[in-house]
């Protein structure tokens, strides 16, 4: 691949409003950008994000940057793998875990490879079956009326018509009442909930029954990611679809979750999977086992979002669509041309690599000025 340099940048970007999850409240997102240049004049970009520092998963923006700088970069510069598959094999052999960091590096390498071959990343991953993905919007202001007004606004703007509600930080009664009021106000529009592991199995029996009754279409990761047997019991018990998110961590663990049908749907995320190739593998495993798919987000900025879209474009079916709205939650963009959101979806570029142009001067300046 002829790698000349690998730079990592921490770029904090404020969110358009507070974003409340059961595990944290976000007022900014820190983009970890990976910029790789080759000796023959190509460059590629990758991105990793976490949610609320270390509140969501075991990697933080700082750990991703430090580990890429201290371990990934010397290894890649010294070994000079000849293609992306060899690079990922090398990283997986020498570096345990660090799936978010691996995803950012693989994205940048695929961007370079796509540019070299004149192909979009989707085609390096086996080929796209769609040029756009439908994109859900997440309502997480913490206030029911604000959420309803926000939903109606984005419907009118033809941006989104699927809504995910982040719940789990209030009592089950309060959360259920909040969801059902929003569902009633939005009528036939699809409403799904993400509990981010906050409920016990017993709370689920009551909470999910009432959400199912109220017409909620999908229940995401209601209980702890450590309770695989409990997730299966809920999946077996309820008709409403149960989705696995935090528990889906890499292709091998996805294999066992799929084989035992622990969930009806998998949320696939490139960061959580350890890269785009792994995300596609998880998609294939799920499809083979009859598990439906949902294109998840780690609230990435535009680079991670469009990388995810390239991967999801290759899934033969994407029954529950995607939530690739991350860039729309941010107050600023780092691209020369923002991603194209229209008609309730995101358009996947057909140009080589990621098919986007990063504003290089801007991101280096933002990283330099940032105090984190
Ligand atoms: C998650 O758990 O799915 C996705 C949307 C959002 O608001 O948070 C993420 C993480
Ligand atoms: Mg989730």
UniProtKB/TrEMBL annotation:
Domain of life from the UniProt record: Bacteria
Residue ranges of every copy of the Mandelate racemase/muconate lactonizing enzyme C-terminal domain listed in the record: 145-241
Family: Belongs to the mandelate racemase/muconate lactonizing enzyme family.
Annotated catalytic residues: 166 (proton acceptor), 323 (proton donor)
Record-linked CDD domains: MLE
Signal peptide: none
Keyword Metal-binding: yes
Family matches, as InterPro entries: Chloromuconate_cycloisomerase, Enolase-like_C_sf, Enolase-like_N, Enolase_C-like, Mandel_Rmase/mucon_lact_enz_CS, Mandelate_racemase_C, Mandelate_racemase_N_dom
The EC number(s) this enzyme carries: 5.5.1.1
Keyword NAD recorded: no
Cofactor(s), names only, from the UniProt record: Mn(2+)
GO BP, sorted A to Z: amino acid catabolic process; peptide metabolic process
Gene3D superfamilies: Enolase-like C-terminal domain, Enolase-like, N-terminal domain
Organism: Psychrobacter piechaudii
Keywords carried by this UniProt record: Aromatic hydrocarbons catabolism, Isomerase, Manganese, Metal-binding
Enzyme class: isomerase
Pathway: Aromatic compound metabolism
GO molecular function, one term: racemase and epimerase activity
Protein name, UniProt field: Muconate cycloisomerase 1
SUPFAM superfamilies: Enolase C-terminal domain-like (SSF51604), Enolase N-terminal domain-like (SSF54826)
